[in-house]
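Objective 1b: paired records.
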Amino acid sequence: MAAALKFSFTGFAHPRGVLVVFCEDNLKLGPATSRALAPIGDLLRRAAAADRFAGKNGAVLDIIAPAGLNLPRLVVIGIGKEGELKPRDIVKLGGIAMGKVPVAAASATIFAEFGSGALKAEQVADLALGVRLRGYAFDLYKTKRKEGEERPSKVEVNFACSNPASVAKAWAIKEAIADGVVLARDLVNEPANVLYPAEFARRASALTKLGVNVEVLDVAAMKKLGMGALLGVGQGSAHDSKLVVMRWNGGKRGADPVAFIGKGVCFDTGGISIKPAAGMEDMKGDMAGAACVTGLIRALAARKAKVNAVGAIGLVENMPDGKAQRPGDIVKTMSGQTIEIINTDAEGRLVLADVLHYVNKRFKPKFMVNLATLTGAIIVALGHEYAGMFCNDDKLAERLGKSGEAIGERVWRMPLGPEYDKLIDSKFADMKNTGGRWGGAITAAQLLQRFVGKTPWAHLDIAGTGMDSPQTDINRSWASGWGVRLLDRLVEDYYER
């Protein structure tokens, strides 16, 4: 198991374990840091000169057992020019700090101070957030470790700061967000034989402990609602499909909620249009959108966000059983529109079509944002750095863009237009579920748009960011939990006023 992180917040006296400090360009240290390092004399400058370390942003100087400090290790991290740092940069520095704490270390002290002095409470909390996210590891199923990989069961991380009580209060909010990200990562990393629709629904139901109202709709309930598109995807699986609706009511009573919808294909073989064997194991992560929505609702509830929010996730398995749907089948959605199945591997949009319509009709939300690992085409277009954003509302698109830039989960707006609708016209039904190779991410979004009416809506295609995720200073996991922090920031900045 990954080591559990235990955080504490104290004054600057008596560091223990690995000591992590920060410096600006030209080795400028804060006053408390200078006092703490006084016993080692000019060792820091000599070591920096030998390693050509000048305090540039993200650069690290590692000194083992520095004489005079009686500590196992001193880690000095450069921040560049303090005035140029943004909050997301401080989160990143926390991740770098945690990355330099050796695997075997049981304790570390991080001096929350830059050249100008002690950090503000919110900044220390951002630093701690980076530490927590970088410290995550999913090794639940490892029973043996190689030499040098042994970890203590608990790692104590102390943040030396000037205002411990204020920091603890600020951290309680950031911790709620971190817990949401960790939940999303855990869900995406789990193997599909463990996390099938019913088990996913059970884990989402645990949010009731935080005051979330959770409903789980079974196959019979969805049949009654007419969700033929969602049910068609899952009909070949031994595991019944589920629709989970999570509601956090932290805003004014009766106020329209904000709504988040997630694609939850717990495993995607492609169905009858089966995928190639190579890499199919990654399709356990085809529910990253649903994982994000679940983690987001957890974060909002844990930090008691002043907003009414709905999270809805369609949970299915796409399997090639004798009962599975076939290319050429036509399904009727809850909205009454019909879809011809051209390729059973274009299944996520079928799930979302019914859930989007259901949420829109039942809750009449201020806006809807759906997340889905929907198309490989978006990875071809944007790689793994940006999620594709398709949106029918300029204000919502602008807010998502600003929220993403603020925390480092960036989105890139892609086009929507009636010209693309022609590609999904069907001879036999209202539409077909794929428009062919060209503009594949766009035609998928065009289909979804037919199920949202006039409600402000954004579709985030997270195929490149939600699983097999980029390795960053705050993420070393296959699953990043992408989207939890983005959408929490969207809610905080624009919908809790």
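Objective 1b, second protein:
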Amino acid sequence: MAFYSAAKRLTEAIFDDLGSADIVELLKDIAFEIGVWHIAHIRFAKEKSPDTSLLTAVVTYSREWQARYFLKQYVLIDPVITFGQTALAPFDWQDLSYSEPAAAILADAEKFGVGRNGLSIPIRTRPNVISLVSFTSDAPRNEWEEFKARNLADLQLLSLLIDSAARSGGKLRPLSTTLSRREEQCLIWAARGKTYHEIGEILDLTFGSVKTYLDTARHKLRCMNLTHAAAFAVATGVIPPTVLQMSERPAVHQL
């Protein structure tokens, strides 16, 4: 229920056009609800050096850590930023390569309550712009691994909604894209966590037809996967945000 509640609140925030300060407070609440220490959203331009690429940042880290990060110009050597500029899939901070200066960032971050564990999810929904949503925790490593394995699909969906809520320039405008009735139905059921087979049984469609409708919907929305497509469609109004209210949890599982 925590992830469902978080997704619902983020969807409402997208259409309420919250300011950055309000979004930070919302992310603090969501971090507590889902069991992480911090949530951070950054946007940067592709194919630019780290010092010129950072466009916006909405983070729940302490003001002291934010000030120190920029005072020390950690953005120039932060491996999360460096790797995140080209990453296509979620990555754990522990799996990154750290030079001696970069390793100092982690030690410094722990002093300011960032947490020893981190997971970053890259979001690529706009040309020449990459967003990175990060979740941190200070849980023991085995608990962190269990948390990731259990909740990765939900975290990916939340990341898309966080990216939309944090997007500068006000509310999202509805896309000109129109889904067919069947594409919308299949995507809604996918957003409720149903598999291809389950969607076929519900809508009286073959497995192949369900796959075709979902693939077509994903391509129309220019999304990488179903998690991305479902969250993006809800966030931009292609499908009604109320569809999540009919499901016990908003996760889109791997199909």
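The radius of gyration is 18 Å. The domain at 2-166 is CATH 3.30.450.80 (Beta-Lactamase).
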